[in-house]
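Hey,
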Amino acid sequence: MPETVTPLPDALEEIARDFADLPPPERLQLLLEFSEGLPDLPEAYASHPDRFEQVHECQSPLFLAVDVDDQPADDPGARRVHLFFQAPQEAPTTRGFAGILQEGLDGLTVEEVLAVPDDAPYRFSLGEAVSPLRLRGMVGMLSRIKRQTVLKSQA
């Protein structure tokens, strides 16, 4: 019996297709573009490093924070997740992974974020372009995003 593959959210699926459509050397260039596109931290986060959790699986120092909107009275299922990342400019691979997750997950509902399959980082066709150790960093980011989403949505 064939194994079923859990679909990615639309934005992540589009990013995965963009990577798959490129030859491996050009995938690194696209990853660099995601690195450069990682948004700066808003002041509320930049001045509060205590709000971040370090992702130790990353080879470069990466910190992330997750925020979940308050529950709207008109639609309790519409609580949105917001992601914030802090990584040095000289860590383009790590920043690129963060940029992918930020673009693909930020603004999704709690349920949508929690439904992202754990193997999502392996669906970006980056296995030929970066080492398995690097990909493990992205897996660690996703794991922490999901864990923090659960914690913040229960608060």
